[in-house]
Amino acid sequence: MSAGWRRAEVGRTRDAGWQIGVSRTIDRPVEDVWTFITSPAGLAIWLGDGVTVLSERGAGYQTAAGVRGETRSFRELDRVRLTWQPPDWTHDTTLQLAVTSAGEGRARLTVHQERLADAAEREQQRRHWQGVVKAIVAALTGP
Question: Which sequence spans correspond to the domains of the chain?
């Protein structure tokens, strides 16, 4: 092995720093999942209370819990990308929720967050987004 080789760290990229992705296939059509995640009830689960649809690029937001950021892109029935910064963090991250078809009447919901500070923050956010995705699935599919 060359002296310059080093083992890649899981979750770390050259361009986006530390990142995490969580996804789940849901037995609901893309339209249903998209409509829910962009509704006040859906937004409250993944982004926080007090936020409405963030479809305009550059639109700022702040949740009741103090998470703040701005919309980077919004593609109807596809994805929303925004900056995301809790009140106790000194840096923002980039957060993306995407909904894609996973076959007839099924959708895949993917949450991707990048520009995390380190491996510990990555693990914290992995657990956070797993819980969020689980809550979205539960809200969409019932008890």
Answer: 16-141
Write out the chain's pLDDT in tens, 143 residues. 444 444 456 666 666 679 999 999 999 999 999 999 999 999 999 999 988 877 899 999 999 999 999 999 999 999 999 999 999 999 999 999 999 999 999 999 999 999 999 999 999 999 999 999 999 999 999 86
Distances from the Cα of 23 to the Cα of 63, 70, 110, 113, angstroms: 24, 23, 4, 12
State the pTM of this model.
Answer: 0.87
CATH architecture of 16-141: 2-Layer Sandwich (3.30)
Q: How many beta carbons lie within 10 A of that of residue 141, not counting itself? A: 10
* Rounded distance between C-alpha atoms, residue 142 and residue 131, angstroms: 16
> Which residues on adjacent β-strands are paired with residue 5?
none
Helix (H, G, I), strand (E, B) or coil at 141: helix
